[in-house]
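Archive entry. Fields below.
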Amino acid sequence: MIDAFFASIPAMILTTGLLVGLSGALLGTFLVLRGAAMLTDAISHAIVLGIITVWLLTGHLSGPVQLIGAAVTGVVTVALTHLLQRTQLVRMDTAIGLVFPAMFALGVLLINLNARNVHLDVDSVLLGEIAFVWIDTVPVLGHPVPVATLALAVVFAANLGFVALFWKELKLAVFDPALATALGFAPGLVFYALLSLTSITAVASFEAVGAILFIAFVIVPPATAFLLTRHLTTMLGLAMAIAGFACITGYVLAMLWDVNIGAMMAVMTGAAFVTALTFSPRDGLIARGRARAAEAQGIDSLTLVIHLATHEDTPKAAQENTRTALTRHLGWDEARARAALRRALDAGLVARATPRQDDAPQLLLTPEGRARAATLMAPRVRAAVAK
Amino acid sequence: MLDLLASYTVQTVLMGAVLLGLISGALGAFAVLRGQSLLGDTVSHAALPGIALGFLVAGGRDLGAVLIGATLSGGLAALSVMLITMRTRLKPDAALGVVLSVFFALGVVLLSHVQGRSGAAGAGLSTFLFGQAAATLRSDLWMMGGLAGFALGLIALIWKEAKLVSFDPDYARALGLPVARVQAVLTVMVALAIVAGLQMVGVILMVALLIAPAAAARQWARSLAGMVGLSMGFAVAAGVIGALISASARGLATGPVIVLVATAFVLISLAFAPERGLLARALARRARTRSLRADQVLGTIHALARSHDDPAYKAELGMLRTRHRAAARPALQRLTARGLVREVAHPPETTPHWQMTPEGRARAAMLEQGTARDD
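PREDICTED_STRUCTURE:
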């Protein structure tokens, strides 16, 4: 049973993808909340330089040395960016955009120059190939486990441990760095640790999904979860669930259409994002559009109430306080007038009166409607509006 | 070197580098000023699915189709970022990251689909990741030239509006300018600049050619026109120098070399630009410190003179040193050069003494009242 699991290539590919997705979601939740999502972009490009530098120095393309190198690269990238920004000669976004392309370009050139010796080409660093992870295995307890999968499992455990251990510190550092500093929690240190883990995870992931696709696994599931909830714990759980969903569906679709598996998994995180963006009950585009429309209707119905109150008991009331005046005098189109009137009727602010012989049907204010108009038109409110 | 310049391919590449520099330099200046540096990164990565689609539709590596596809997907990405930023609580950088990674992933999926279908021919597509300057054709130059003409013409046409919207969008809105439309035009132009560089620099590094020349130019320029002009100059120079280096050495991809040259321009500018540069600022700080020390020493002599009730009091170097340490001697030299103190003998003592000149007394009095001007 266990042997069958480790011998099965699909199982290994899926496990690897899931580990990338879950590790990314764990860290990404805090990065997205902190507003540092684009630092992930910078780090994931910059580790190309880290990978080739460590290879040139030690000859290892994977293993613990690479992971340490990655942590250093990540810290260096972020520190350089901050250094550049602190000169106040360039803005933060420009600083990011200057540092990582330079490091990336240097990394690509070093790979170019050593192309004959290094078993590493730029395309594979960038895009990865999750389908080949099973080729390189090490025996663990008698089972052949893919090296990349094993490394990812270790990294996942480390990320999980970090988040569990420093939950309180992370939460504070993300939501209120000033308070965290005041309480003596060193949010800067926590933040750098978070970014170091991010680059370690990036290096562990690049063989599977590549340096750039890794960004999708870090940013997109947490951003999707962010649209669905306002609780940190729920967001973290949702992000991991979305990552898992994207890995499984992405794998199935990639098999079906014969396309790059890692990329298809990343695309599925995007599909989840678009779904949440459209349909999220509170923050989705549809819900927000409805809320805005309802708010506009509410304002229209109050405008109607004020209109009626202004002309009530005046000689013009017979013409002004009618259904047709809404389109003719307030300049509303038919649909808008109907929606505003229905809302005012439903709220019990306005009532229809039975028309006298040749008059147009009258709209009357109910006592509640009159009271409402009085509050709205009270001097205090008028002064506030005039301001 | 001359052999290199005589080569037909190198000439083509150089002309391409010049055209690309003109476009990216000019448009990059606006992107950097408007805080949209990273939008360039997102748009350039997001060009990948468009490239693959253009390839699929044209059925081969047709630059025109590829560029149209890249412009469309880049523009769509820019609009998506705007939509997500405006309509959700997500921070702008999360919006940038989501769009960048999802579009890029879609590009890789399409790429693997194309490569699976057309085999070796599809391999040409991955050159767009890093660009392949040597593959530039003369006919491609016409397209880049057209793009450059269009972009520069458009900037000239909306120069005043673009300037105001870049520096003070609120004021521009108050004046009744179509701010949103101008911003949309400038954003789409970023996509155009990136598309122009796909062939030579590639989607991943193109953002650097957009940002770096502009960031370098910002350090030297005092006006928008100066910044745009300088930025174009830096971008052209980076392109030409980078292309030449990469052509003269085997195995150096053009895109990364161009990016490193542009980055070097930035570092030089940050260090040596007059006024804003780090060196200039350090020198100015040192000059201020020295001038302040000189005034402090003058103040000490003035205080000594007052406590001895002798305006012409001769202060001894050792006394000044107890207060001002090693700074006393250079400060005194500075004061002497400015004619505020003079070195005098005070027999029978042999150590040097200093005495305020009338000008020195006047300055010391002004310093005391806080009416002295810095020099």
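CURATOR_NOTE: Chain A has 19 helices and four strands.
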